[in-house]
Amino acid sequence: MALTLLDQAKLCVDPLQKGIIEEYPRTSEVLQRLPFMSVSSDTYRYNREEILPGVGFRGVNESYNESTGILNPQIETLMISGGFSDVDRALIKTQGNVNDLRAIYDGLKAKALSLFWTKEFFKGDTTVNPRGFDGLEKRLTGPQLLDMGSSAGGDTLTLAMLDELIDCCPWGVDCLFMNRTMRRKVNALIRASGAAIETVSDAFGQQIPSYASIPIGIIWIDEKGNEILDFNEPAPGDGATVTTSIYAVKFGAGQYVSGLQVSPIEVLDLGLYAGGIKFRTLIEWISGMAVFNSRAAARLRGIKNA
């Protein structure tokens, strides 16, 4: 059974693990929505749906024309992500309760790991980091990759192209992912068209903006403080590196875009180490992603900051 991280946290009996797992979706608009399938290995083989088989009517005593759909075999490699959270025992003596202070530092580590995973979801490239996985930027090609225009310096976003992006996902779109500047641009375009700004509730009950009743997920910074979907992508045709992208994604375990994990996020209290100087917590997650349908996601690139 595939569960989101929030659903997994509800099943945790260990308060430490529960708190860490909950921090991931609180920090990431992607991990708030992405379902995770449990797999038994660090590699996962599956068939991605490309073209459906043909069907039709037939007359009495006639036969059907044979037609076979197209499935492309895929292999996903799961990555091991995590880190140690250390707290000097001297800080605990001088600044407060051991559990409270360690919870703060463990939460910071979980937040950094969540931002790191979100960056990989969009920008991951195994040719650059063979220990990771390929993100949507590398995976989306052909009809799932739209150009805002052909200008060397990028082109201005329009609602018509945003509608075209949505139409690239015929099974529907669960979220539109973009940076904060693009979110403001979408709101401005909606107001200019005379329509009202729509909002929907996220998994935490907070009101967030939407377009065509599709939630807008704001993708901000990575664990190093760098913008994930910044205006640093080359415009189509190897133009200037001054553009950004908007992504449309349909989530679904075994059907559309899904996460993969060997087991839920592990949180191990290693106690005192290094000669009794520091308290250490290990946070580790063997995970990855899969795109089960070739039209489950799309990217609109070449959008300039205008």
Write the layout of secondary structure elements.
Elements: H1 5-10, H2 15-27, E1 36-38, E2 43-51, E3 70-77, E4 79-88, H3 89-95, H4 98-123, H5 136-139, E5 145-147, H6 159-167, E6 175-178, H7 180-192, E7 198-201, E8 207-211, E9 214-218, E10 233-234, E11 241-249, E12 257-261, E13 266-273, E14 278-291, E15 297-304
Parallel strand pairs: 1-12, 5-15, 6-9
Antiparallel strand pairs: 2-3, 4-14, 6-11, 7-8, 8-9, 10-11, 11-15, 12-14, 13-14
Helix pairs in contact: 2-4
Descriptive notes:
The protein has about 300 residues and is of the alpha+beta class. The protein has two domains: about 5-50 and about 70-130 and about 255-290, Major capsid protein gp5 fold (2-Layer Sandwich); about 145-250 and about 295-305. It is about 25% helix and about 30% strand. It has helices at about 5-10, 15-25, 90-95, 100-125, 135-140, 160-165, 180-190; strands spanning about 35-40, 45-50, 70-75, 80-90, 145, 175-180, 200, 205-210, 215-220, 235, 240-250, 255-260, 265-275, 280-290, 295-305. The strands form three sheets. Strands 5, 6, 7, 8, 9, 10, 11 and 15 form an eight-stranded mixed sheet that branches. Strands 1, 4, 12, 13 and 14 form a five-stranded mixed sheet that branches. Strands 2-3 form a two-stranded antiparallel sheet. The protein starts with a helix and ends with a strand. The model has no long low-confidence stretch (mean pLDDT about 90).
